[in-house]
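Incident log, structure service

09:12 report received: a user says their structure output differs between two submissions of the same chain.
09:20 pulled the input from the user's history:
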Amino acid sequence: QHYLAMGSMAATTSVRLQIPENLYKAEKNNVALAISDCYHSRNAAIKLKRRRFLAIVSAKSPKSLDTINGKKVNGIYVGDKFLLKGNKNSEILTDISADTPLHGYLVGKFVEEMFVYRQTFIIRSYETGPDKTATMETLMNLLQETALNHVTSSGLAGDGFGATREMSLRKLIWVVTRIHIQVQRYSCWGDVVEIDTWVDAAGKNGMRRDWIIRDYHTREIITRATSTWVIMNRETRKLSKIPEQVRHEVAPFYLHSAAIAKEKNDSKKIDKLTDETAERIRTGLAPRWSDMDANQHVNNVKYIGWILESVPINVLEDYDLTSMTLEYRRECRQSNLLESLTSPTLSEDEGFNNYLNGKPDMKYTHMLRMQDDKAEIVRARTEWHSKQSLISI
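09:34 re-ran on a clean worker, output below:
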């Protein structure tokens, strides 16, 4: 296990190398090459004439050079020491393993004995809505970003969008089939959040990914989410079993822990809406080119905005979306026109009673479908709490 720490500590250039006696010869060579490459590179992030380098090599366990959680992972060691790039105040961390370039961009860190990946974000102004708090789409985007960085930081990433190397060789990709998110409160513009993510098996041919979002300063858990993923062939667009080679890649990362307790998870089937059962229908929704992802289908986060298009405006203004469950049925292309259907599942009296008892004031069932053949794309269920306090009644 080794890392290279760089900082602007003096005007002269100096190198100090400390190598334990039990360090493998191959590791010594890798460190020497890393320092040499960085010294001679014209594109190095730090100008050597003005910076000093301090290279420290340690060997926590030489036998674990290419292992994580006790198992080999593509011959790459994933450790808890990273490269600190840029100036001395930089917080961008990146792995400097033998086959990772010095200009690596990996961010975040592994915690909980390497099973959990943790990343920090600041809520930007363009990620907030009219009330200056983060939107549900923002939260979903941050969850997705953390998941992708988890795969990349683990050393598993192939050439696909979150696919492993063995998946890329077989033209396979991950697709989400269900996601459930519970929001305690939304962060405001400028707030810093910390996101933990990890994976576990889901049945024989699925994978579960969970997330927890905390307020960075108070450590309060403000959001929990869980999702189920399966594998699809990116050319035939058909679902596939998980090949044993892929299972061997991801199994060392499995953590048998759930972000949402089973009894609190929304696992019930979502009812199908029709023209007769839907209270509101919004037509003519058209995906844009920017809505497409690297796998050439509409990014799953984009569906949220279309789902909310058919929610009454007074609900959007006066209520907070506290729970959302999505069941993905079909892919959507840029050429498709969509319809958004919504229907309440609580009467006005039930909603008022729930409000008094601290339960969701409003519940809705939603569906996105193709406008031409009415084929389902997504079913969804949402819960909403009033932004008003009991005192204002």
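09:41 both user submissions now match this output. Likely a transient worker issue. Closing.
09:42 reviewer note: The helical segments are 25-40, 136-153, 165-169, 244-250, 302-308, 313-318, 348-356. The chain has two domains: 102-267, 268-346+360-392.
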